[in-house]
Amino acid sequence: MKKIFIYLAAAAAALTATSCNKFLSEQLPQGTLSDEQVKDPQYVDKMVISAYAIFTTAEDINGSFSMWNYDVRSDDAYKGGSSTNDGDVFHQLEVEKGVLTTNWNINDMWVRLYRAIARVNTALAVVEKCDENVYELKNERLAELRFLRAYGHFLLKRLYKNIPFLIRTDYTYEQYGEISNTEFSNDEGWQKIIDDLNFAYANLPLYQLEMGRPTKAACAAFLSKAYLYKAYRQDEAKSHRVTEVNKSDLDSLLKYSNPDIYEKVGYNLEGDIHNNFRPEEIYENGVESIWAMQYSRNDGSTYGNLNWSNGLIPPNIAGVVDGGCDFYKPSQNLVNAFRTGADGLPFLDGFNEKDYEFADNADPRLFLTVGMPGLPYMFNHNYVMDYSSNWSRSGGKYGYNVSLKQNVDPALIGSYLIKGSYWATSMNRIVFRYADVLLMRAEAYAQQGKSAEAIELVNKIRTRAAGSTQMIASYPARYGVKFHIGNYKGEFDKETTLKIVKMERRLELAMEAERFFDLVRWGDAKTVLTKYFDEEKGKCDIYNDAEFTADKNEYLPIPYEQVAASNGHYTQNIGNW
Description:
Strand content: 5-15%
Distance between the termini: 49 Å
Number of strands: 14
Structural class: mainly alpha
Shape: globular
Largest sheet: 2 strands, antiparallel
Helix content: 25-40%
Radius of gyration: 23 Å
Strand order of the largest sheet: 1-5
């Protein structure tokens, strides 16, 4: 099957770019298209493919749409690099001190994502003019584009909360300058995203021949996540606190996360979680991958449509991956969360009271998520990690752990790991995977007091985790580690069930850049990160001055450049930035 994201060149060339009021919009000017072009399905398809393309081409090492750069604010990961001055603006985010509205990384992601949305709207404007009698796929293509527009707005909203919504395709230059970022309440903003997805769900097919185009199941997964965020109401003018977990939104989540939607068309859990993070073609677009960013190699261009956005993450292994930058390093706190007791269950409280040692029981997912000294890097026994500069450019300031989910075995250099300006890989990035859908469903059940239903889904994830040992089967005998994972038994009250689900999300989705956004959504960021900073001080001196300020640090400030260009239509986020 073809990967749609790789067919870019002709489609991208079809666009005429103009800058619109700091959005750097790529709108086609009125009158650019002839009647013949609008009626030509081949031309229209190129416009649609160009809209897909920007979600890979607009990101790079400094601004990944996976958001790993911004997840360094969580307790899962340290920024990494050579020092706090290496990517200093991200260090400011991880300690929540010194963040300025003029920092380049505050404006950077705003511009990247609005470029993507503008490209989508350009294609939408073209498709909307098509005659259905000539272009039979009109509604399906409109559905794809509105799915993509919802995705761009979703990423922006998680970062900035109060954002302008570009939900029309006929804006004039002047009208761009009149859009407000507070036109809609927080709840109404989520609904705007859901409105696009509702149209998409009604018009997308069950199956797609080309990988990368969303299916009805992909849209259901996206609706599940949008309703999950919408359910946690944060609509107070001077606060980001959660005032309600809305039952109606949870009911909608349960509707769209129904396993029948997914399993009847072939989606399910992989037998081994690691299969989701392998670059080989036989593993990509597997049964758990509901919608993924499609990267490629050997497609006729010099480097292919490779993913450069993880280029800062590989370690700097001397003589092997020279130039690895060693960012996004798993925290010791995350490692400790994988410890299990005699019953094979995680410690819901007090897991960080002692650091994990190989003699401790551990969830096998630890060894598929975190590379640690004494164990092989990327499961390659030729590269056993140690306490050297190969594994920590900072000399240990950020520890010696390495993320495994974004990296590729050095044995695959030249095939699936390519050196250009930075390291890149052809490995897809899964945006919606089935495990996440099951955990969102479990969370909805937990919030509704349906403990048995929630625990059943958590146990399904844990059963899969117990069998995820294809790459690490030799570790107990060879390196002395201990796999021990069990399922939950018995009945639990609502508070305990929520703790179980939250912990399972952390373990299953660790280093997939979900953690910080989960903490904010739950209203737990202040409590969890204050405790994390207090425990890290003295052990990891980068946090000595760290402090999370509630009703400020949950979201990025609106970039100064955008506020200044808005003619007074943008309101700065709360928190006295």
